[in-house]
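Dataset card, provenance and construction

Sequences and ligand SMILES were collected as paired inputs. For each pair, a complete structure of the chain with the small molecule in place was predicted and serialized as structure tokens. The example below shows a pair involving flavin-adenine dinucleotide. Curators did not alter the output after generation; any descriptive sentences attached to a record were derived from the structure itself.
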Amino acid sequence: MSAMRASLADERPDVIVIGAGMAGVTAARALVQSGLRVAILEARDRLGGRIYTLRDFCAAPVEAGAEFIHGVGAKTWADVRAAGLRVRPNSHQRGAMMNLGDGSRWLPLAVLYPDVWPAFGILRRLARFDPTRGDLSAAQFIEHQGYRGRARILADMVFTSHLPGEPEDIGVQGLIADGALALETGRDFRIDAGYDRLVEFIARDLQVVFGAVVDVVAWSDRGVRVRTRNGQTEEAPAAIITLPAGVLQAGAVHFEPPLPPDKRAALAGVIMGPVLKLLLRFEEPFWPRRFSALYCGVGPVTLYWNVFHGVRDRPPVLCAYCTGPRAAALASLTEHEAVECVLADLRANFPRNRPRLAAWRRVDWAADPFAGGGYSFVRPHAADARHRLAAPSTGRLFWAGSETATEPIAATVEGAFTSGVRAAAEVAQALAPR
Ligand SMILES: Cc1cc2nc3c(=O)[nH]c(=O)nc-3n(C[C@H](O)[C@H](O)[C@H](O)COP(=O)(O)OP(=O)(O)OC[C@H]3O[C@@H](n4cnc5c(N)ncnc54)[C@H](O)[C@@H]3O)c2cc1C
């Protein structure tokens, strides 16, 4: 990777890639490998975008953004191995607790109540959902199943523990098309040295211009010209946009000519929901030794996890993970109030011991102007939104980023990676001599 440069690319590139997250660096690498000159324009002063590893929070790297590789078959594994990165499996299932509104219990005990049992089959029922009968919101789907009480809380958790929205806003067809069910059933892994090391490995031979906040993109069938906030311009025969949907929806980039109606409708079909991590480092662990995670059906936090569960000699750090309305509520408090609110919740969930907090960090992705939210899901009746977002329908301007991916799991690092590979192939084909 080149050192930081004050100006845009020295040589006219064949392709401009906007954004140096996983989608951007993956697309750029593929293009460089096919012999094209590529300039990546990145608004921040770092690589990775929503992959953001903190090294100043405690004695070991902690993830403020993406944390897990989802599944043993993820497309990113080849690079993880080539980079020689050590991974550790995540054991959310072993040592997990759940709170369905009546206090925290170890997972097998929490679901012993017969009134919870009807909700056990929800994933199976979702997988059997018949798309030819039209779309439903998650709220309608749950309502149709007739779950009540704790079963209802559990059913809501299936949708909203990962997706950052209200059940009313989540489309069932979109959720299935997104492959989101695989997240509930697959195995997860962490990169020990930090997720950002994977991005750095992929970007190692690439030219990145940092601090380049793109605000105008002029596109046509012949090429693309982009302008940055400080007035610099760059032109190329083609460009790939990898910006998060939240950034595009906020109107942070002006398109000339405006994007066609189909693209704008596709953009409106995805919701970029709030996701917030509150990282908490304690003087010592106050949780049971085997505790790995706590799934919360109620309270201010969606899910707690023990960041270094099962690893020796690591600091006692919990991640309080909040999605959708819970993230928005914690974000509306001062940082001090948010910490107090979460500590009170922890005291209620672990009444035997008193947590002694040593440090905290709140990372609110909805407040980040270069993310505009944590990640996205698809509205009801908009199941094809991601395909239309990805479509190469805007001349020499191409589309990547995890919001444009449905393969294999949308809105993930892997989705960003596969979208970058796809968009690079589209560009290479468009620029190939005829
Ligand atoms: C808290 C959190 C936890 C997550 N956990 C996981 C997980 O465990 N596993 C998983 O697979 N996924 C997870 N995700 C999702 C995952 O991080 C994203 O889907 C993926 O990293 C997106 O990559 P991307 O390249 O599409 O977008 P980004 O990473 O957002 O990259 C886009 C880039 O564009 C840049 N940019 C923005 N505006 C401009 C502009 N105007 N000009 C120039 N550049 C600009 C940004 O700075 C950024 O670098 C999580 C996300 C969050 C927020």
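Derived descriptions for this record:
The first strand starts at residue 15 and ends at 18.
Residues 1-7 have pLDDT under 50 and may be disordered.
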